[in-house]
């Protein structure tokens, strides 16, 4: 059996052309399409919204994309106990003890105290993390985050999204000042 790698040819606005990818999936008559990234790449969710294969399954992303009751989401009984089905659009397919079946990553032990100190974060501070890239960054997001920080004493926000740092900083500064 030969396996071919498909690489999109068109990249309007720097992102692969969704129509081209969907066309290739349909042309190849793919029976089961498995998304191994889910919500961390918006293009995957957009492709799944077109239901380009008879069976579309999401797995290993942050969560199911909440697109269609015709789609599936792979999980297990630990991550999604029996009573969780009602919260999902997709049908949950529970694998036995294997939701994230990866290994081989080197783990380096770190002192939490030293790590926080190196980042100028106090041991008693509550840390919120925002990973929103520039394309998802907006004033409403900033306002909501600042509102949460105001309600949680001794809390900080760490923003690690890709984008223009000066734009991020200015938005947070202006919102905090207001």
How is this structure best described in words?
Helices cover 29% and strands 16% of the residues. By secondary structure, the chain is an alpha/beta fold. A four-stranded parallel β-sheet has the order 1-2-3-4, with no helix packed on it. A two-stranded parallel sheet has the order 5-6. Helix 4 (139-151) crosses helix 5 (165-177). The radius of gyration is 21 Å and the shape is globular. The mean pLDDT is 86.
Low-confidence spans: pLDDT under 50, at least 5 residues?
A: none
Major beta sheet, strand line-up? 1-2-3-4
The class by helix and strand makeup works out as: alpha/beta
What is the percentage of strand-forming residues? 15-25%
Q: What is the average of the pLDDT values?
A: 86
Instruction: List the helices and strands in order.
Output: HEHEEEHEHEH
In whole angstroms, the N-to-C terminal distance is 63 Å
Net shape: globular
Radius of gyration: 21 Å
Tag the structure with descriptive keywords.
single chain; 178 residues; alpha/beta; two-stranded parallel sheet; 6 strands; 29% helix
What's the gist of this structure?
The protein is of the alpha/beta class and 178 residues long.
How are the SSEs ordered, and which strands pair?
Elements: H1 18-27, E1 32-35, H2 42-49, E2 55-58, E3 72-76, E4 91-95, H3 112-118, E5 126-130, H4 139-151, E6 155-159, H5 165-177
Parallel strand pairs: 1-2, 2-3, 3-4, 5-6
């Amino acid at each position: 059996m030969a396996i071919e790698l498909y690489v999109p040819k068109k990249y309007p606005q720097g992102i692969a052309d969704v129509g081209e990818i969907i066309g290739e999936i349909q042309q190849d008559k793919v029976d089961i399409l498995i998304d191994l990234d889910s919500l961390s790449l918006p293009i995957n969710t957009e492709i799944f919204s077109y239901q380009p294969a008879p069976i579309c399954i999401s797995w290993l992303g942050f969560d199911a994309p909440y697109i269609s009751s015709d789609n599936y989401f792979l999980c297990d009984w630990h991550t999604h106990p029996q009573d969780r089905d009602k919260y999902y659009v997709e049908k949950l397919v529970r694998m036995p003890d294997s939701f994230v079946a990866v290994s081989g990553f080197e783990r380096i032990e770190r002192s939490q105290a030293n790590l926080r100190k190196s980042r100028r974060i106090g041991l008693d501070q509550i840390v919120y993390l925002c990973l929103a890239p520039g394309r998802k960054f907006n004033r409403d997001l900033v306002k909501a985050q600042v509102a949460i920080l105001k309600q949680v004493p001794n809390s900080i926000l760490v923003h690690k999204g890709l984008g223009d740092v000066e734009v991020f900083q200015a938005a947070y500064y202006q919102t905090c000042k207001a």
